[in-house]
Amino acid sequence: MKIGFIGLGNMGAPMARNLARAGHEVKGFDIAAPCPEGVECVGSAAEAAKGAEVVITMLPDGNILRQVAAEIIPVMEKGAVFLDCSTVDVESAREVARQAEAAGLRPLDAPVSGGVGGAEAGTLTFMVGGSEEAFEIAKPLFEVMGKKAVHCGPSGNGQAAKICNNMILGVTMIATCEAFALADRLGLDRQKLYDVVSTSSGYSWVMNAYTPAPGVGVPSPADNDYKPGFAAELMLKDLRLSQQAAEAVDADTPMGQRAAELYEAFVEREGGRGRDFSAMLPRFESRRRRG
Ligand code: NAD
Hints:
Blueprint: E1 2-6, H1 12-21, E2 25-29, E3 40-41, H2 45-49, E4 54-57, H3 62-72, E5 81-84, H4 90-102, E6 106-109, E7 112-113, H5 115-121, E8 124-130, H6 132-145, E9 146-153, H7 157-186, H8 190-197, H9 205-209, H10 232-249, H11 254-269, H12 280-285
Parallel strand pairs: 1-2, 1-4, 2-3, 4-5, 5-6, 8-9
Antiparallel strand pairs: 6-8, 7-8
Helix pairs in contact: 1-5, 3-4, 7-10, 7-11, 10-11
The structure holds nicotinamide-adenine-dinucleotide.
Nicotinamide-adenine-dinucleotide is lined by residues 6-12, 29-33, 45, 58-60, 64, 67-68, 86-87, 112, 115-116, 230, 234, 237.
């Protein structure tokens, strides 16, 4: 396929590289990052988009997505797929999809989970919103860049699935770290807590597959001095998106709101920026209930 790829950062570069390796013709553009191996570098987003059957964007946020969409929608071929893989707010995803549809394009919002490791290994999971028809066209590309793609419904539903998942993840991480910190104060060995919880009703992906305590459970960023992994500021971004969406549709999400507040304090005032999101455990460890 002829593919335009816009946004060649930590995630975009390995995704574009995997598409080129699989034999697709990829034209890439980024305002700052270099083009990865196998990708033809062009001078603008419009140039990358012109003549492409599928245009993929992997950008930092909804405002930048809207700017890039305004540049590329007018030059894209009718019927081409506009596949946005960035994590953005539901409203921007739906607005960009409306504009793309009005121009005769096929929009898909397809945020990913799996991080940089998943992007490099081609094992991402895609959560996809948009038409069945567009999903079928993009399927072979999902198969190159990832191991699973779930069609979640109409435009915006991919982003909705992503922020709901990550709201659960943020809340669960905090709950698990709180429990380890409480166990410490109660004189309960962390390994024993893990042995019980990982096979009891408190088990979770966080406890069982991303254990936030160093030396306990499976290897995780906790065993590497909390180097990300999944950085705390990215978790904060996703929690903020979940609260923005909850506000817009009047949904009551008190735990998600509290998780967003805690990650905001951690990232902006407590030295959490650049650390893995599981570094909430040393944060709780160093704090007391009263002052
Ligand atoms: P990144 O900052 O490394 O990459 C974004 C790239 O977009 C940068 O290279 C930047 O120069 C480029 N860019 C910005 N404005 C542009 C423009 N107008 N035109 C062209 N390029 C432009 O970020 P990332 O880690 O690759 O993340 C990309 C998206 O994927 C984000 O929405 C993020 O939330 C999401 N995501 C990231 C991870 C992760 O672990 N890094 C995991 C899942 C989802």
